[in-house]
Amino acid sequence: MATTDEILWNVVQTHLDEAEFLFQQWSAAAQSPRLSLVDVRKTIERRLLAHLDGLAVGGAAVAEKLLWPVVAADTEAPASTVAAAALALLLLPDPQTPERLLQAFRATENESLARGLARACKVAPRSDIDESLRLALYATDSPAAQTALLDVLAARRVDPGPILGVLLTHPEAEVVRAALGAAAAVIDRDRLRQRLDDCLAHAAAPVRAAAVRTGLIWNLSTAWRACTTEARAGSPEAMFLLALIGGADAVAQISPALQRPERRKAALFALGFTGLLAAVDACLPFLDDPDAVVARLAVEAIASITGLPLYESAFARASDDDAGDDELPPLEEDLRIDLMPLPHDDLPLPDGPKVRDWWSKQRSSFATNDRYLRGAPLSTATVNDALEAGPLRRSGALTCEIAIRSGGRVQLAALRLAHRTPTLPVEVSLQRKPAWR
How far apart are CA 316 and CA 25, in angstroms? Predict the structure, then answer.
């Protein structure tokens, strides 16, 4: 390991700055409609890991002078810097590192620190921190820390244990929502079933949505009934879940939301997960919608079912953003606008007539009642291909469906750094109906 005098501190600071930037890019890529897991690993992730290694190679000297101050309780660093520093620390061989990080996690009231540590722990490529994370939940009564730790455990598919019974009745809705997310990994479900059922009627919509998702993974008939009710009421999460497992009935139940402008975008996004030709027919009229987001979501849904080559220029038209107007909005207007791009901003604006012409020529090769994924009949092979080479924005939905179809027995890992590609076990069929109980 290098000594303090031997370290080029300007180089080390550059590694941290680059790691912060690249981690933000890597996190954004997890919601990309264009990039796949393969794409991210070959580009952003490779560079990110190189800069994290550049920090870790400095050993204890870099850790104590640069990294630990970033994750101290009084840090003023943004969450993205905290996350980069924490990931670099977790690459060090020091066995005390996880515990030191979790001490900061448990004790902090610093929201930026908590969010940064949570982001790092969710994706850290080491399994030996799972038990420490679980135990940290028992050592804090801070709602902010509890929420962050529960979200981390949910992402890492770790059962929090007996404390969930208490947290599912917490007075703060955000803690309950996070507890429901973590409950998806619980093995002993019977002791918590009544509390989950109670959460299906919670006053807060995010809590109800989390209860429905976990209840479906547990294969609870109460959750299925709540899902259909919430979907009819316009819940985006419920429409998405209904699309995953509802079959032909899901298209019929979601399609009326297309006539409601405030529900249209969520309905289009959901319909793409049905895999059915009826959903394609429902989306086609919206390719020419004056709302660019609606048109983009319509073509994304169609492509996810039919395999339309979404990014080929033949099927895209210029958007107003491409018209060459480089003037910035007035400052007072600029401050009122969220300028951060959203995942659907990376979708092409479709040329409706050309997409419809393409589909009219392709339709005869598709069976009306079969379910399709990216133009191929749904199967283990097509799911595994989609998990590796399909857009990351949609791969999380596949892992969710796998969890539901298997009754929670198979819960593929969420996206992590330097982690193996998730694959669908051969014994799990996405054609199998959930075993409602």
Answer: 25
